């Protein structure tokens, strides 16, 4: 079972967070590194998912309730780690008093987020060359 813990980006877990995101977004999906690292990480709340003390997933939430950078290494997908990561971030948002959380979902992932209680809104849009749609969940 994965262990999902809140971590500081600027702390000792920064290397693991960056490594996971580099693998998933930059290498697998072709997102340019300059887009992946948008300058918002230092002010975001992050979580790190670990299996047998090995970091395998990560995600962040910004102060306005925007969830993003959900990434799970390919070797550990389909095991509930992504869902647990989103749930942990949602719980952080609720504890901080947010009434809703929102995200930009890659179109192929909308079913995943719908199963977690998110609903799409607005038009599709391109981000880093990948089609997305806004989704939200009221807490």
UniProtKB/TrEMBL annotation:
InterPro entries reported in the protein's UniProt record: Acyl_CoA_acyltransferase, Bact_Acetyltransf, GNAT_dom
Sorted UniProt keywords: Acyltransferase, Transferase
CDD domains the UniProt entry points to: NAT_SF
UniProt GO molecular function: acyltransferase activity, transferring groups other than amino-acyl groups
Pfam families in alphabetical order: Acetyltransf_10
Gene3D superfamilies, alphabetized: 3.40.630.30
Presence of keyword NADP: no
N-acetyltransferase domain span: 2-139
Protein name: Predicted N-acyltransferase, GNAT family
Protein's organism: Marinobacterium iners DSM 11526
């Amino acid at each position: 079972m994965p262990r999902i813990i809140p971590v500081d980006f600027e702390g000792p877990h920064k290397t693991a967070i960056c490594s996971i995101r580099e693998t998933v977004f930059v290498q697998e999906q072709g997102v340019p590194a300059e887009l992946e690292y948008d300058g918002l990480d230092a002010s975001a709340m992050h979580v790190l998912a670990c299996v047998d003390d090995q970091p395998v997933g990560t995600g962040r939430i910004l102060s306005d309730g925007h969830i993003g950078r959900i990434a799970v290494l390919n070797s550990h997908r389909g095991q509930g780690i992504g869902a647990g990561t989103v749930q942990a971030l949602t719980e952080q948002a609720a504890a901080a008093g947010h009434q809703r959380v929102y995200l930009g979902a890659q179109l192929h992932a909308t079913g995943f987020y719908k199963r977690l209680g998110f609903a799409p809104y607005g038009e599709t849009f391109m981000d880093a060359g990948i089609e997305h749609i806004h989704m939200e969940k009221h807490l």
